[in-house]
Amino acid sequence: MQRRNIITKIRYTTVKCKFCGDWESVVQYGKTVKGTQRYLCRKCKRTFLNNRAPERKQYPIEAIASVLNLFYESASLNKVQRQLKLTYGVSPDESTIYRWIVHYSRKAVKALGDVPIKAGSTWVADETVLKLKEKEDSKVWFWDIIDDKTRFLLASHLSESRGTKDAKILMERAARRAGRIPKTVITDKLAAYLDGVELAFGADTKHIPAKKLTSTNGTQIIERFHGTLKDRTKVLRSFMRKGTVRIFTDGWLVHYNFFRPHPAVGGKTPAEAAGADAPYKSWKDVVKSK
Predict the structure, then answer these.
(1) Domains and CATH numbers, the chain
(2) Does the structure show a pLDDT above 80 at 151?
(3) Is the pTM of this model over 0.70?
């Protein structure tokens, strides 16, 4: 009898409640139809599977994090499904994958959107058009502005127009994110920037309208960014509606700034180059956090 009690105690100390963290109250509680062991926590009265899945999820943390990484590195949902099957032996449907992307993107944006950074004094701004699915001629303009020193994407702005007001909004958002105004802003020769930069920063900032987007004036940085963004929108074609475009573009910007190393800053992420003390270093950190 004494030997049986010792074995039982050792068995249960290896299983911790996914909800309350207690292990002394966890007991086996039958199996699922697929034969997976189910557990009951007598302390919080909840059942769970010991499968390294986040709270209320049935798939492992690593699998969900892999979905977000693959998706924001331009993999289609079909390719994401195939990779999950090969790597983790699981086959969530597209609607489940879609919900993961929306949920954890919002969570990451909320947590990382206001992390303090140290931006440089030269910023590069540009805009590109994104076509939406709703109508053949439906489109929005995506504006963004990047810090030349750290490659940190300071701000973005979605609009249906391409005027001075939109350029001013972009500049003001970037200044709030950086906690400062720049000494220099480089843009293309779109007329909206001429007044937009001045209205936002006054005479304290030098505005350089670049004649050509080349590396000599720094605007090639933004061109590479837009090339990557357009690759991303190719696989988002079926989701590109006004109600979802903001979610996915914000999620991609978090991925770009905080989780994706950049060769121009020594293999660091732009956030690391900008001295950000971020609570998350990867999508896995986002998924496993409560």
Answers:
(1) 2-49 (no CATH), 53-115+245-255+276-290 (no CATH), 122-240 (3.30.420.10)
(2) yes
(3) yes
